[in-house]
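Review form for a predicted model. The reviewer records the input and the model, then writes brief findings.
Reviewer: anonymous (R2)
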Amino acid sequence: MTLPPSPRRHRRAGLLALRAALAAAALLSTSSCAPGFTVGQGPLATDWRNGTCHRLTSAFDAGLEVVSESAPSVACNTPHNTETLSVKKLTGPLAQYKERPSPFLMATSMGPLCNREELAAHLGARADQPFHGMHVTAFGPTRKEWSEGVRTVRCDAVMEYEQGKPFMNYMLQRPFKDILKSEAGTPFRLCRTTVGKELRNVGCDKPHQAESVGYAPLAAAGTTAAQRCAKTVRAYMRRALPARYAVLPDPVVAHSDQMVHCWVGQADRTELRTGSLYATEDAARAADNAAKKAAKKAAKSAAKNAAKDRTTTGGSS
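Model under review:
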């Protein structure tokens, strides 16, 4: 007796079956009576150029299970969710395999070639500055490319998405390059908020209580965490701390040889704000010039009023 198939098949099993079907179709396409078989928008040929942008269409495509990404590149001023940071060579024993190794072996060998420091530099962050909503992943050759001798690794910045929301909503229409040096980087700056009793990380475009400004350097013994963070906060905001705001080091450390994660936010920790306290150099310069003009105008007005008062007083005596 043949039992009916279980209705509760694992998603991965379904995907493997789909891939097996695609592979079988590809083999059939080599016969003279079958049309050429392609997947997506074109043949499975990876774009190995630095600085290219790509548009993944499903969350699975951005997952660790996928070791190859061969979608055609798109212009970086059109919607995209990945951007190539660098292209590197895969070496070592794994590179000697005639057939492409398992996804696990590929991921563990390619992963170390694509690091967070490279991503931070591309986004315009300091090496010690946290950010939100972006990670770096490694893509390798397709099976066909591997069989042809390709041993290249592509390191991509990948936008993250929120579970339960449409994947295609998470696209950017400008390059990721240096985005944290501009006002457009607000969604990718790290902020935090309290949900119930839990602290959660969010982008600074969401309501939050505090914003990360990075880590304070080591300091002489005897300095408090807040004192150590003051310089980091000033460099991030490029201005004095506004009223109702406070430096919120986390954690408060007892020893000067420990790094301090510096946050800035509302002095009243129950109060929420939306937006970033980060200031670009141009914005800070414009604010300084505006403040100088306002001070000059106020001084001129005060001098004019003082002269008027002297004239009035002198005429009445």
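Findings: The CA atoms of residues 112 and 193 lie 32 Å apart.
Further findings: The chain has six helices and nine strands.
Recommendation: see findings above.
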